[in-house]
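Teaching note: in complex prediction, the entire set of molecules is handled at once rather than each chain in isolation. The prompt given to students was simply: 'Predict the structure of this complex.' The entities are:
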Amino acid sequence: MSTETENRFQTALKEIFSTSATRTVLSVFLGFVVGAIFMVFSNEDVLKAAQYFTARPMDTIAASWSAIADGYSALFRGAIYNYERADDPVAAFRPITETLRFAAPLIAAGLGIALGFRVGLFNIGGNGQLMFGVLWATWISTRVELPFGIHLVVAILMAILGAALLGALVGFLKARTGAHEVIVTIMLNYIAANLLTYFFREESLLRETGGGGTPKSDAPAITAQLPKLLGEDYTLHLGFALAIIAVVVYWWLMERSTIGYRFRMVGHNPHAARTAGINVERTYMYAMAASAAFVGIAAANQALGATSGLSPSVDAGIGFDGITVALLGGSTAPGVLMAGLLFGAFKAGSAPMQVMGLSPEVLGIVQGSIVLFIAAPPLVRAIFRLPKPQKTTVLKDLVKRSSKGEEK
Amino acid sequence: MKTSTKRALSGLAMTGAAALVLAGCAAAPAPEETEVPEVDYLACAVSDEGSWNDKSFNQSVYEGLEKANAELGVQISDAESASPDDFAPNLQAMIDASCDVTIAVGFNLVAAVNEAAAANPEANFVTVDGWSEGNANLKPINYAMNQSSYLAGYLAAAHSTTKVVGTYGGMQIPAVTDFMTGFYYGAMAWGADNGTDVTVVGWDPATEKGDFIGDFTPNSGTSKSIAAGQLAADADVIFPVGGDQFGAVSEAITEAGVAAVMIGVDKDISVTSPEYSQWMLTSVEKRMTNAVFDIIKDIAIDGNAFNGDTYLGTLENGGTALSPITNFSGDQAAIEAKLQELTDGIIAGDINPLG
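The expected output is the structure of the full assembly:
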């Protein structure tokens, strides 16, 4: 990738993150609108009623309305509060705890990717780093015996260390050889995924004791499992607390610490940072390691939050979802926290939506649309080399457009 | 630029509107009369990783649900699992939706469904290819696939001119090797009956060593090279136990330029994928659609109480069977009579397909 295009994408990144809160909220709203449209047009009742739209238009409208209402109320029941089970408080409040549980790894991975963005790095390798962290954590949790308490701490640290090492390797290759981190991280995704599968398949390595040829690990030892936070009725575990700690650490690191200052300087303008005496190459390496370390917290969550054996699909795509979380959260600590919670709610709400007969793809479309609306204007400009507008906020643009009309 | 985009968009909108108007002109229907009365029974299913349209066991189960919905009038609901993270929440959603029975499809859900069954003793569950860890409200559906595979092995040896037959699996798990072991002993039985040496390549039940693809990816390159290797070892009947591998095997046969045939699994492949019928000898059917349908019917229509007893699909109850034989080289009526005799022997317990 040439320096020119690289600069353009860095500019695009900067623009994405200069978006206002209003624009983010608008994008979320628009995402839900797109989801509603999809729900309406994929609903059998609506399609049936649309065939005689001219004869009884109200049928189509009523069917559309009920499709949207059914869908989003199922999301609410699955993600916040299940009012249909109000008789049983445990069942009624379970959804919100599930949202938090699903949000935890998304927040942690989102922070990792966000850190990369702030330094001007695209870490597409979250999934590979996560799997590498899982590999180390699983080794500790299933193959090493340690006393209660210490075992868990060591396993968590190993997840973070394992992921961070893979991230540091990317930074090292970029610093030493100029290899672009996007390509290196994508390729490392394949390597890490297959390495994990290999370890899970080999009897002498991590394969389930007494298991067959299927790649699967043992369940983490009870001393290495993340303890449940709200008793046995809920599956919410310590992973969420780790994610919250990660948010605070991220905020301190990026906003208060010296290294964070260097990260941001390099992210703003690597040339100026170099002129100011910052070792840009070394900063890239540290940044990739730090980025992956946060992803490692997500790895700890996946590896140690389980109560049964892990399969090679333990990543659940969290490394990639982290990219959307970081983009939606504008790479700030509170933003990533909120974005992670939103996407965690989507994951928790997907099952009840499916029960209502909605395709599980709806929420993926909503999720993608939200980030598209946030990222599209600057990205589209970067790709098509359109001139940069005076203001970056969508609202002001809208006001300007509506007062002046469409022509420019 | 702007205007042309606008024009294009308005053109698109016009076409869309026209389509809507044209499509919307049909007359409003009279209130529908359903043929099958609705039954107040909700049957639900949670898939293994992958969709309901996997042409394999997820799909077989889902077709059972759809059949129950169409023929019995029971309500159905389902959730697909995109990753193992979804197993427990999907099962929980079924419990929250007050499903009368929830079917967990596949060996991978066995831990999650046992947990759900233990935590919700008032709800009922079925596990396909799994087992119950002492939960009375969890019914396992299992199959004695070795029985029908024994018949397939016998038939394969009878058909073969080289007297070498091959089999290979997706993964080395009991649900797969059960087929292969039955096939092995069936082929050996033909050899013993006819005083001829028969060789089975790709699986040896004594040492538990054999050829495995490593996953269930349909028609992978690995699958094809295993099939080619077995053909090169003179096998002229191939029995791939790993979902849809029939494209890989048929390609290997064509490229080797030999007159070999293959044996299908799970469904009657000659019917579901007619493009392969010229190479099919028979298929070893695992009739999950029927099992699911029968279990739902037993409770929802016949009013029997749910029980946690294992449903075992056998030759006797028709849970597993051979599909109609095609492309057989010898006297088909004679071999069919012989297979019927073997079937009776297995049902009576006189023949052990596992050795």
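Point out the following to students. The longest helix of chain B spans residues 2-23. The CA atoms of residues 270 and 277 of chain B lie 5 Å apart.
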